[in-house]
Amino acid sequence: xxxxxxxxxxxxxxxxxxxxxxxxxxxxxRFKVFSSPGTxxxxxxxxxxxxxxxxxxxxxxxxxxHIPWDLVDxxxxxxxxxxxxxxxxxxxxxxxxxxxxxxLGSLTHTDPRIRQKAIDHHFxxxxxxxxxxxxxxxxxxxxxxxxxGQGDIxxxxxxxxxxxxxxxxxxxxxxxxxxxxxxxxxxxxxxxxPDWGTSYAHVTALGExxxxxxxxxxxxxxxxxxxxxxQLLRLxxxxxxxxxxxxxxxxxxxxxxxxxxxxxxxLFEVVRGGGLDDGSPxxxxxxxxxxxxxxxxxxxxxxLNVQEMTARAxxxxxxxxxxxxxxxxxxxxxxxxxxxxxxxxRPALAQWRESRGLPTDPLAAYADSGYGKQIADERVGGxxxxxxx
Amino acid sequence: xxxxxxxxxxxxxxxxxxxxxxxxxxxxxRFKVFSSPGTxxxxxxxxxxxxxxxxxxxxxxxxxxHIPWDLVDxxxxxxxxxxxxxxxxxxxxxxxxxxxxxxLGSLTHTDPRIRQKAIDHHFxxxxxxxxxxxxxxxxxxxxxxxxxGQGDIxxxxxxxxxxxxxxxxxxxxxxxxxxxxxxxxxxxxxxxxPDWGTSYAHVTALGExxxxxxxxxxxxxxxxxxxxxxQLLRLxxxxxxxxxxxxxxxxxxxxxxxxxxxxxxxLFEVVRGGGLDDGSPxxxxxxxxxxxxxxxxxxxxxxLNVQEMTARAxxxxxxxxxxxxxxxxxxxxxxxxxxxxxxxxRPALAQWRESRGLPTDPLAAYADSGYGKQIADERVGGxxxxxxx
Amino acid sequence: xxxxxxxxxxxxxxxxxxxxxxxxxxxxxRFKVFSSPGTxxxxxxxxxxxxxxxxxxxxxxxxxxHIPWDLVDxxxxxxxxxxxxxxxxxxxxxxxxxxxxxxLGSLTHTDPRIRQKAIDHHFxxxxxxxxxxxxxxxxxxxxxxxxxGQGDIxxxxxxxxxxxxxxxxxxxxxxxxxxxxxxxxxxxxxxxxPDWGTSYAHVTALGExxxxxxxxxxxxxxxxxxxxxxQLLRLxxxxxxxxxxxxxxxxxxxxxxxxxxxxxxxLFEVVRGGGLDDGSPxxxxxxxxxxxxxxxxxxxxxxLNVQEMTARAxxxxxxxxxxxxxxxxxxxxxxxxxxxxxxxxRPALAQWRESRGLPTDPLAAYADSGYGKQIADERVGGxxxxxxx
Amino acid sequence: xxxxxxxxxxxxxxxxxxxxxxxxxxxxxRFKVFSSPGTxxxxxxxxxxxxxxxxxxxxxxxxxxHIPWDLVDxxxxxxxxxxxxxxxxxxxxxxxxxxxxxxLGSLTHTDPRIRQKAIDHHFxxxxxxxxxxxxxxxxxxxxxxxxxGQGDIxxxxxxxxxxxxxxxxxxxxxxxxxxxxxxxxxxxxxxxxPDWGTSYAHVTALGExxxxxxxxxxxxxxxxxxxxxxQLLRLxxxxxxxxxxxxxxxxxxxxxxxxxxxxxxxLFEVVRGGGLDDGSPxxxxxxxxxxxxxxxxxxxxxxLNVQEMTARAxxxxxxxxxxxxxxxxxxxxxxxxxxxxxxxxRPALAQWRESRGLPTDPLAAYADSGYGKQIADERVGGxxxxxxx
Lengths: 389, 389, 389, 389
Hints:
4 copies of one chain form a homotetramer. Chain A is an alpha/beta fold. The first copy, chain A, has a single domain (7-316), classed as Divalent-metal-dependent TIM barrel enzymes (TIM Barrel), CATH 3.20.20.150. Chain A has helices spanning 6-13, 43-57, 75-85, 112-132, 153-170, 196-206, 225-235, 260-272, 295-315, 318-326, 330-342, 346-355, 362-369, 371-378; strands spanning 17-20, 62-66, 88-93, 136-140, 144-145, 176-180, 190-191, 210-215, 238-243, 283-286. In chain A, strands 1-2-3-4-6-8-9-10 form an 8-stranded parallel beta barrel, surrounded by 5 helices. In chain A, strands 5-7 form a two-stranded antiparallel sheet. The first copy, chain A, is globular and about 60 Å long. The model of chain A has no long low-confidence stretch (mean pLDDT 97). Chain A binds chain D through residues 1, 221-222, 224, 247-248, 257, 259-262, 292-294, 297-298, 301, 308, 330-331, 334-335, 341-344, 346, 363, and chain D through 1, 221-222, 224, 247-248, 257, 259-262, 292-294, 297-298, 301, 308, 330-331, 334-335, 341-344, 346, 363.
């Protein structure tokens, strides 16, 4: 086994992967949402579950909230509650896909009243940010159309630009606007922010505190995602990741589950582009659906996958790689990259966890903890959280 | 305008496109199911809506049922009710994707008890068929896995074959088993019947009354669907179509909306392969989701699209086409096909409708009928039908 | 048949579709390049063939050149020769994919000497532009890598930006730099300009006379191309089209052959975004491969397809469309678009051609002209033009 | 590091990966074929290069020939020459894509004379098999069409079935017919054998010695290849693999280079389905293009990749896996699979090589051998082998 240097371990110690509160609620497909015992009914229960992931891995110090799913009266109190659990409140995510009036659009709607309603929703999200101290307002815009002719593609862009500028103007201090893109779903003909180019064009028009969010599941088949990572880092506009994995569409599987080598290449470009450096604007976050598997272990598995792959990315001998690249040694350069990928970093990371008072095997520790049984027993009655609540 | 011959019009007169009862209920994505006024609460209301489509187009004489969504106590009475509305009961569709016990499989489950439960569900569907006189049991198997290793791909096939053989053995008389395939969703790593080859291998193992169902939205990107149509017709195993259209995944848009030329090519292969001939085993059916558009006009638009495209397919000068093909005249052969596609058949079909006592413009006639307002006013209270009911 | 208004016909009269000189040479796949009798051996013969297309359609007044394939000593003389044939010299295309030294990159190469060689090639292309009066330097950059690690994605971007800035600085007057993007091929892991976002980021960094070229075959499966058209028009950076069509990858089939409805939607966005207006920066061009079909008729078919689809796009009742869109009438808005698409514009265009002294049926006129036989008889010996010459 | 058991090492010792003679010739894209010093000019030189791969890895005891590229007068002599180099002659591959008469089809052509010519070519290939003792006739059929209407899809299938039956009838003894499928290229609308279902339908119609060849690069995007592997093994019709890897289309990159985890899953299904057992009908072969990288090291890298991944597949604790699958433990079952994948098998395989008298690092050994320089010096003049020769 290749030794993992202290420098690498120190870098890994600074890595933080934000968990989405909704990962602990039920998720599913249009065909069925399966429920499971112990699923949280409240934001506090979601935070409690997220705190388990952080307690066992040391990797997930903050939790993203989704408004209105995670609306509470007193965010100071919620932040304090979270703090007691050892986690903080992170990114605030807006929701413009579940109000009946948004059926044909929100920030892009032809009706100025509905557009303003959607803008106001983002203002309310910024109010939450002010209360929680969250830095990022993340906008995943579900707007789009299903049929050619249904909407005016160009007019929708113009209205989107106008709506975004009003939201951006409301931000203050260090607050940032992060605009996610997605090729399709929930709409099937056009999405109003379908690709990184569109998100990039909008955020550069907004200003310096606007960034692109890259969800690894939101691309056309065969898109080279690490290229986009490298390009956005180069342009200074990569704000955050939504990590997950996919075989077909936006499958929202556990990050690294479908194509671990792709995750490695992505993280290598993050390292290469300074995304792990001090002061980097890049934030890491999960955005997944545990449709059939247990949710808390699913999140543990996910943050470990990101950490292990980051370790492999950091293992790449970049000096040797550059030399091989400059020499035009195609196979040699590739071999240097692959050598890091094929290195089994798990034993070294287990030792590192032990040295930091964390369980060497977080999944086994979770299974042994009895937490799963405990919440299944305690959380009886009420309405389990899901995408609708 | 190219004249449409009497022969073509006579062929069109025999075309029947089955409507799915669930098309009239609410549908949506995992993000949101939008409801709309007038949505049926009962099977009878679904049948009433379907009957409107048939009344205005003359194209949709039967309605497919979905069990258990359309479970009633007395199917003879339901059939009689439908008959009074001018429609019949058609294909019976089973459902193995909404019971909690099917989370990890139904006909393929490792647990023999759950497999038997799923088999018993199909026996119950056959009982319905016996009561309604339906010919086809259509099985769309949602079984699959989300993660590599989760299931034993091979073992699942063996169990599937066993389960299907038990169901097939229960059929009697002219009853048929039609096995649909789908590349992904609701599962994201494997589906147990992902492609036509798998469906074909299973139905040939079952016997002569087992056929493949081709859903036009269930393929990998860039799959040549008309090739599969031609091949299955050649092999004598094309049992039915589920028509819809797509830009990305299984979008379930109105048939012909996304790629009208593809629909034309598909229907041309149907014609070429004898799929419209007397005694053809091929059945036509819609399977779509009207997430945001009005449902009854959506179904009217759909059957008209199929009819118009069938007319264009029938217009192809096949003698000239064969001559050009045999002469190796690439551009000439293509031009003969395109000439039919670019012909505007709508005026001729309007005349034909008029000659048969149907409205020349079915969509305008529906708008004028007041039916939409009537059901919106009448259908107040109760639970609107959807995929869950 | 819907009447085509004089306004529409006048707009069509201004449409010009540039032909690529290389369309008249042999093309093929990596497996085989089939030759055919009459294929040009020289630039002059290519121009003569292109002039036939223009003579019969009135749509193709200019011919794009590819350097070094179309290198001649005296471009003034060549322009004069072309002028005598009734055509002009158009866009100059550079070539950085056939020199052995470009195996691992040209404008992005790690070796400054090879980068300068590639830059110098573009200077030579600008010299040709100065001699011919061509406005556009079109750069399709084939640079990329085949294996992860082979190249430094980020470093290649930086070198590309530097190389492009040197080329751009050499342009003068009204000359423009148009940067094409392509997702893959000839490289299979990364391309250095894989998507419109990358091209857009580079051209905005260069200056106001730098634009994006959109080749309709250069996208990932299921990419919504008309969205990109609308977006680039909105951003003022759509410089030109390379038209062709595809079922799978960069198939380079006849434009409109694979998905005529997509071509319609693209041209509708061109119309919507002012791309046909006076002073529009958008240029139309073909870029196809006639691997198995006759080349001159293939080009005639292509320009007719673009014209017919432009006519359909212009037929859209935009006032009614906007009203339906604003009213949220999904099916109504779609129907307005489809009505134009399904209108058979061919008879009106035939009349229009007649009124302008052009043959009503250009393909029949070509067949009758005997030109094909003539060049087959005359062009004996020499080396047929292809991608290598 | 997980120990690799003696049982596993013994299984690995039986693995043989056939090399294609054409891998040592030049390959490229339609844009450019780059040449390199030392490229073979003759079949003997190809065999010499292939023998280097086997000498250093012990994995590649046979070489596939391509007719007519590898036509010689005396195959007994060629076999003897190969034997002296330590390798044998393997699969015979036919070629129906480079004769001008096959432009519109070979085994499917409308002209019976051209069909017979293509059939006769396969008879000639069988004659070679008789001379060399090769077991497999592999048919990759490039036939297809570029434009809708160009050919009669159904008629082409019927003619194909007829042609194949004539070829099959000519086989004798243990000889097998292996039919490869491919979704697209060199044709872009239809391929006559586009998918495994089509190949399967044809080979079952032929007889027991007809099998399917699965080329890992010949599928639509997002196709689950290991499912097809499992299915074909279950149906008893998986004859052979053509290994390579891809990001986009049929990129023909080094096997395992683009998606190592996919290769692992494929090989796991091979193991699971008995494909490595004694008497298995499954043959392993490479089919790649080394467009820019060195060819001999490229082949060494490839066979090592297959071996390493086979070792990982053999490491899967199948008993534990089955238990987890039966228990419905989604994450647990997945973890068992991933544990094998993430195990670094390279040190154990290096030891194993050492124990068998092979170099521990075959690539370093090749670099040290001087063979590359030697052939570059010796092979001067003549015509380098490529796809055309």
